[in-house]
Amino acid sequence: MSAAILSWSLWAAQIMLALGMSCAVFRMLRGPRAQDRVLGLDTLYINAMLLLLTVGMASGRTLYFEAALIIALLGFVGTVALAKFLLRGEVIE
């Protein structure tokens, strides 16, 4: 019973995260300002990271956890670089 509930909840979480990713892509494409597009990108990488974590939990492989960690680190650095570019007009001073 417990394994069935875990399997169902992981499946439901993956579907909801995929819907969240589609909403983030919509915000990236249709955002009226650049800040909205950066926020959509930030949301997209967080949802992608969480989707990889749920896939890793469902399959039991550690490779997905390492890929999620890399996506989290690169996504954070990318968000900081884009925010700095939007604020000052240059990334490297």
TrEMBL record:
InterPro entries: MrpF/PhaF-like (IPR007208). It comes from the Bacteria. It is a multi-pass membrane protein. One of its GO terms (cellular component) is plasma membrane. It is found in: Cell membrane. GO terms for molecular function: sodium:proton antiporter activity. Pfam families: MrpF_PhaF. Its main location: membrane. Keywords: Antiport, Cell membrane, Ion transport, Membrane, Transmembrane, Transmembrane helix, Transport. The chain crosses the membrane at residues 6-26, 38-58, 64-87. PANTHER family: NA(+)/H(+) ANTIPORTER SUBUNIT F1, NA(+)_H(+) ANTIPORTER SUBUNIT F. Belongs to the CPA3 antiporters (TC 2.A.63) subunit F family. This is Multicomponent K+:H+ antiporter subunit F. It comes from Hansschlegelia beijingensis.
